[in-house]
Amino acid sequence: MAGAVSASLLGGSPALAGTAPDESSPRLQLPSPPGGEDVRVLVFHGSAGEEPPTVDAGIEAIEKIGQQGPAAERFTITATADPSVFATEKLGRYNAVVFLTGGGDVLDPAQEAGLESYMKTGGGFLGVHDAARAEPYSDWFTGLVGARPSATSPDKAQRATVEVGDRGNPATKDLPKEWKRPDKWLNWEKNPSGSVHTVARVRENTYSPGDGALGWDHPVSWCRDYDGGRSFYTGMGGTSDSYQEADFRSHLRGALMWTTRLARADCQATITSNYKAERVTSPNKPGESDQIGEPHGLVTAEDGRVFYIGRGGGDGEAPVVTDWDDPQIGKGQGTVHVWDPATKKSSPVGSLTVFGNKGGGDELVKVEEGLLGIALDPGFADNGWMYLHWTPHSKLNRETHMAERRVSRFTVDARTGKLDESSEKVLLEWPVQVHSCCHAGGGMAFDSKRNLYIATGDNNSSQFSDGYSGNNPEPDFKGVSFADARRTAGNTNNLNGKILRVHPEDDGTYTLPEGNLFTGEETDEGGGKTRGEIYVMGVRNPARISIDAKTDVLYAGWVGPDAGQPSTTWGPAKYDTFARITHAGNQGWPYCMGNEQPYRDRNLPDPEKPLGWYDCDNLKNESPNNDGLVNIPPAQPNNIWYSPQGGGPDYPRDENGVPSYKLDEQELLLPWLKGGGQATMDGPVYRFDKDTASKEKWPAYWDGKWFVGDFYDSEQPRHAVVMPDGDKTGALPVHAESLRKIIPIGEDGIRNLMDWKFAPDGSLYVLDYGRGFFTSDDKSALWRVSYQGGETTPSAGDVIGKAAAR
Length: 806
Hints:
Elements: E1 40-44, H1 55-66, E2 76-80, E3 96-99, H2 109-120, E4 124-128, H3 139-145, E5 158-164, E6 178-183, E7 197-203, E8 219-226, E9 229-234, H4 246-259, E10 275-279, E11 295-300, E12 306-310, E13 331-340, E14 345-355, E15 371-376, H5 380-383, E16 385-390, E17 402-412, E18 419-433, E19 441-446, E20 452-456, E21 498-504, E22 510-511, E23 534-537, E24 544-547, E25 554-558, E26 576-581, E27 585-586, E28 592-593, E29 597-598, E30 640-643, E31 646-647, E32 649-650, E33 667-668, E34 680-685, E35 706-710, E36 718-722, E37 735-738, E38 753-758, E39 764-768, E40 781-787
Helix pairs in contact: 1-4
């Protein structure tokens, strides 16, 4: 039997463990529902069998927890193993009930009914570890604790890493993001994610979960507003030593702060049913693009309107010219639309004649050029300036199969809402080959200093390298080696395969901000040159980039090559990549990918013959197609990369740092990620604005989380990730939260995610590309995902003591 524990505040007599609380005690005179100046917690440790060995340690820890912190946030406890208290009015005198029980039926029907009534009147519940095994035949109690342990749960204590995803909940806000500790880790019969709000997960690859492993998403602590009250459960606390840990006591104290009403918490933020995803655009009228073009990017304006672009492909009935002898080859209409939340209607803003409606190319007979990106000037509300990243059809050279990419500034007429084509100011232009598809990039974003970031693809063929490094100097078309990305992404004197950073001026020109990768004046022994517009080099196809509005940090994602598995001859499999980029640098393509994993060099006269491995820290561009520096910046490690085998593949390395690239030696550093057919779609870093009046804004739980996704919706990523503090280059995420149930997948959901941005009202807009390629169809749509979960609990007026004033 547990030792006697008392709650000495107000001088009351202690209630002995194993007995019902003393009815005469002055501590038990609070009315129901709980409330008042003196906060009381009932610790129940009754058991249907042998009492858990953790009870004494748990009671002692909770008693000490109650005496920590400011006086207004303290509480007293009464411990008992007698369940009869649950069938009396005495229960209403407690602000929260803690279950330190073992398994089995510990309450009879009347007692369980009393606990239900207690919760319905606004009570608080904290279940610890084996409490999830109590009342095994009660569906209501299953809902109260959130999940039941499976019979396959390991029975021994193991050291593991807990990922703390909720940085605002009082139970987790003071914990390490990666919390390493020993405990008995429970598996669950059914994963509760989506029906509860998970505040922490245990990382299964840090211990042995046994046959009942849940995978990367293994909740360990969660909370929810339940049946009128507040319920918190933690699967930790399975060992007596747990209760001696300062961090675990902090975890329990924070949980009791919320369940007793001493603090508020959002325990609704990740519950799937609290989100509403609605398609806001209708299908186009037959043969028209009245609602949407071939979706390719969106941006939100300060007034809440959403502007979105179509690349240039028409609907399935639109004619496509692929004959290079025909002047109309590849001609399409890049479209700009706007959706107005005030009228809930979409309307055309304008269109540009682009080279980008399929057409041309080598054996692929396709092209990814067209209208590629959109950004609104920071002063758009006053000046109407819209920046478009596009490939004008009028600049196509059918003889050389070359075109011109440009970023232009247009004015949207405030009166008519239409784009004025005659207002074009060409900000920046550069040549691109269009003989062979692919990789046009397109993303654009402004930072707080009005610097414009422009993402460009490597303008390189996907073929001729067996899906590994795009570094083949053969073949060429009229002198342009269209399969050698050292010509573009790896070239310091070429604007393709880059993220550029310029400062647009009011007259339509630009200046170069300080801190770019080059000044434009550098040379080396080879006499090469640089372009001062380059902020990041070595990216393959960065279709989407974003800027964190709070920190001005750049986030980007790009698609990798096509190799389905690693090669001990050529290097890594296709890695789709995300990176948090805090300073100018080289992200590695086509020399290195992932966490500085090198490819094999190749060159003339025989590109099929592998040469040496690239040295990621000492890169040289020795391509015959290089007109930039020979000695180029070292490859920086990236934060997230994934292949068909999974997330973050890594291998043992030899004395020169070259990975083995053997599948049976592969380690997956990011087990929450899977690939297959894959195409990264970088998303925003969400920033919660408490001053925004909208009740549909995503809650503060998501603040600072980086949204990463994939075009496809099978096993590919659609997650919000937490990055570690600091700006360490290549740091791995410390936590990932799945968005697959919130941003719906499937044939009638958002199956092909093309772009996503938060609006000023805190709702999320998402573009679904549709179900074909290089076209639009009846599934091409703009969606809005809003939050319907309401305020944090308890209500501000129902918080006890000083916390109520905050």
